[in-house]
Fold this sequence. Notes:
This is SET domain-containing protein. The protein has 232 residues and is mainly alpha-helical. The protein is 57% helix and 0% strand. The protein folds into two domains: 23-54; 56-229, Serine Threonine Protein Phosphatase 5, Tetratricopeptide repeat (Alpha Horseshoe). It is globular and about 55 Å long. The N and C termini lie far apart (41 Å).
Amino acid sequence: MEIVALRAITSGEEITVPYLDPALPLQTRQSALRANYGFNCMCPLCTFQQTLGPVVPLPSDSKNIRAVEDSLCEYVTSHILQLDAYGIPPSAAETSPGSGIPSELFCLLNADYLPSLSETFSRSSHEGNYEIALASGRTLLAFYAAIYPRNYPQIGMHALELSKTAWNASITRNDDVEASHPPPAVTKLLEDRARHYLTLAAEVMQCFGPEGDEGGPFEEIRIMRELLQGTS
């Protein structure tokens, strides 16, 4: 077994591992841990969410949901990592996952929100509706960055998917995008986003090293770099 630290460990600090996906709803995590391991989890994320009490419902209309999602992306960009600008994302402050999230974003912890957002990104990216895919994927990346510890593999894997989505959008340039921007500007913007997301993916996945299977994330990152080098 190989164990990889997500960040620097200080002398005497307790070392922990996740038993399950931290993005799962609190009650789902707690029930699974009690049933399978016989304990109530008191990790920083569970403790933080327990202090919130019942999660407030999501806004009833899509416009207000989008406003909350925009606030999430703004918060993550300001405090955790760059979501859009090309370049190496800054290192996150060493804070507990979930801590510091503004109260107006707590509704996004609703159990139905993450599965719905993930499904929207997956469906739209596979169907070629890249404008929706990039918007929902960006929000999903922000959600992961707010919940997961820095360098958690899911952040890197999703950033890689976003990079591929931005690349696919750049070479297809559907009519909805072309209608609002000159095509060359759109292509450059999408290529820059693909590079940025790829930089983030490589930074996170570098912590773990290549997987044993051929065609894994490192191979996909290599291919994406070659494709993007041809556009420089």
